[in-house]
């Protein structure tokens, strides 16, 4: 099998970090998103939505979408568990991961893709108002997340999970938007330092 990767983009990085935490190494094919290689016939045949990451199996079939790919690797190699231990724990991790995706990551992506002219190659129809709307939302999202991290080490509780990976990749991508994490968000900053120091964060 091989993984089609997209460099600094958050979703491909999420899979790389997930694999690094698992200690899994597979061949990777680098896709230049800025050069629109994801729109090539080869990639379109694997994923008609023309997005990465894509996990291609030896039989030529493909698995797309970040969490689906992570779920596959979680199932074939459960340790260390990154998606929960039992029914309730898995549900909690899923809840927090979805919150990181639908609130934090989505808002940051909207600012980056619609508020940066350099991103026009990826977002041909940019809506500056949508970027500004989300830019105004992000400080409140960060404040909420800071509160959620009070008294615990990781996003979904006492252990590092996929929710931490999603949040880390979103916040690191926030550098593109030039929005600060806020010195007042001490719990969030403490958490970010901790997870950034993990070897997998360099994946």
Describe this structure in words.
Strand 3 (about 55) and strand 4 form a beta hairpin. This protein has about 200 residues and is an alpha+beta fold. Strands 2-1-3-4 form a 4-stranded mixed β-sheet, with helices on one face. The chain is globular, with a radius of gyration of 17 Å. The protein has helices spanning about 10-20, 40-45, 65-75, 85-115, 130-150, 160-175, 185-195; strands spanning about 1-5, 30, 55, 60-65. Helix 1 packs parallel to helix 3 (about 65-75), helix 1 (about 10-20) runs antiparallel to helix 6 (about 160-175) and helix 5 packs across helix 7 (about 185-195). Helices cover about 50% and strands about 5% of the residues. The model has no long low-confidence stretch (mean pLDDT about 95). It folds into 2 domains: about 1-75, Glutaredoxin; about 85-200, Glutathione S-transferase Yfyf (Class Pi), Chain A, domain 2, CATH 1.20.1050.
CATH class type of the largest domain: Mainly Alpha
* CATH fold title of the largest domain: Glutathione S-transferase Yfyf (Class Pi), Chain A, domain 2
Number of E strands: 4
Number of domains: 2
Largest sheet report: 4 strands, mixed
Structural class: alpha+beta
User: Count of DSSP helices?
Assistant: 7
**Any idea what the radius of gyration is?**
17 Å
Topology (SSEs and partners):
Elements: E1 2-5, H1 10-22, E2 28-30, H2 41-46, E3 54-56, E4 62-64, H3 66-76, H4 87-114, H5 128-148, H6 162-173, H7 186-196
Parallel strand pairs: 1-2
Antiparallel strand pairs: 1-3, 3-4
Helix pairs in contact: 1-3, 1-6, 4-5, 4-6, 5-7
